[in-house]
Amino acid sequence: MKLRRLAGYGPAFVLAITLLALWELYVRATQVSPLILPAPTAIIQALVNNWGVIYDNTVQTLLETVLGMGAAILLGLLLAILLDTSSWMRRAIYPWLVVSQTIPIITLALLLLLWLGYTIIPKIIVVTLYCFFPIAIACADGLASAEPDLLNLLRSMRASRWQTLWLVRLPGAMPAFFSGLRIAATYSVTGAIFGEYVGGSKGLGIYMENATNSFAIVLVFAAILVTAVLSIMLFGLVSIIERLALPWYHGAAARK
Amino acid sequence: MDAPKLLVQGVTKTFQTGRQRLDVLASIDLAVAEGEFVSLIGPSGCGKSTLFNIIAGVQQLTSGTIAIDGDAGTERAGKSGYMPQQPLLLPWRTVEKNVILGLDVRRVPRKKASYAAYELLKRFGLAEFARHYPATLSGGMRQRVALLRTVLFNRSFLLLDEPFGALDALTRLSCQMWLLDLWHEFHSSVLFITHDVREAILLSDRVYVLSARPARVLRVVDIDLPRPRQPEHLALPQAVQLEQELMSLLLKEQSI
Questions:
Q1: I need a surface site. Which of A57, A167, A199, B72 has the fewest CB within 10 A?
Q2: What is the ipTM score, two decimals?
C-alpha cells in the first residue's frame, strides 16, 4: 500500500529528472556564465559546501513558518466560527476578509517592520496574514455545509448551539479545514521569506538577499531549492496529520 | 387513568411566505397511549413529516395543542426519540459513538454512555459492528444503528419517520421484526410514519389515515391481529380486507 503510494509519484520524479538533465546539458553546451544560470550539479555542490550556514538560516525560517501557521490556524478557525454565527456576521465580515487579501504582502511586511522592529514578530505576522485566509474560507464553507436534517435531529435532542457546533458541525467541517490547511502550508514558507526579505538578521530570505547582492547566484538557487523542499515537507506533514486525524474520511484506513 | 403519552388536539400548520399561504395541516387530532404502537399513513407530500417535526419540537405549530405525558408546554424538544427518514449517522463516529450521540447531548459521562451503548448493541445483535464506521455498513444496518441511537436517547416515546422506506423488501421485513422486538423489550410508545399500508398493518395497534394536503384524519382503524406479530398475520382474512380498504382510501387521495 505504502509502496504503491510512493510509486504514484514516479511520473513527477521522471519529469523532474528529465528537466534537470536538459538544464544541465544546456548550461554545459552553451557555456552560459554561472553568474546568470548555474548548472544543477553546481547548485547541489554549493548547497553541500555551504550547508552549515544555510541550515542555520533554514531553522530560523522554519521557526517563523511554524509559529505563523499555528497563529493562522487559530485565527482561521476563530473567523470561520464567527462567520458562521449568523448571516449578518457573514455579510459583515466576509467582504473584509477578501479585501485583506488584496493588500500587497510585501508592503505590509515593510509596514510591520516599521511598527514592530527587526524582531521575529513581524515575520510571524506576515505568515499568519498570508495563511489564515484559505483556512478561514474553507472551514466556514465546511461549517455552512452541515446537513439541515442533521441539525433538526440535534434540535430534537435539545442540543445547545455550542453542542451542535462541537458535536456535529466542526467535525463535519474538518475535511474542508484540512483542504484549506494544505493550501496554507504551501504558501507559508514563501510568507516567511517575504517577511525576512524586507529586513532581518537571519533566515532564508535574508540569505537569498545577501547572496543576490554579492552575485552568488548559485547560492540563491540553493536557497530556492531548500525553500521548495521545506514547503513540500510541510504539505506532506499536513496530509499525514489529516490521514491520522480523519481515518473515517480516508475509506481505506476505515476498513482496516 | 394516566395521561396518554401523546395527545394532539386541533393542530394546524400554515406556511406563509409573503402573500403565499400554504395550509399543510388542517386540524389534526390523534393520541398515542402508553406502550401503544400507532402508525400514520397518508399520500406522499401530505404533511406527515411536518406534523412529526412539530411533535419533535423542531418546528412550531400554527394553532392547537400538543401534550406529551400530559405536559402541554411549548418546549417539546428532548421529550421524544426522533428518527428522520435518513439515518443521519455521523461518518466520523464509529457505530458505538453514533449510538451515544444523544447521551453526549445530555452530558452523560462517556464511560456510562459507552456501557449503555454496548449493552444495547449486544442485545440487538450489532455488537460486532461497534467499532465500524457507518460507511462500511449496509443500508439496513445503518437504519438499525440510527434506531438504537434514537432508543438510547429516549426509549419511552419514539417518533419514527419512514425508517425503512429506502430498504429492499427482505431487509425491510427483517428490520420490521427487529423493531417489534425492540418495542416489546422497552414497552415504548411509538408514532410511526409510513406510506406502506402493509407495514402499518403489520406493526401497529392503531392506524390513522391522513388525507392529501392540507392533511386531516380520514379514518382511524384499530388493528385486531394477534401479538406478537408475525409476517404471516398479513395473510389473515381481516388483514387482507383491511389492506384493500385502506389502499383504496389512499388511492383516492393520491394526486397524479
A1: B72
A2: 0.90
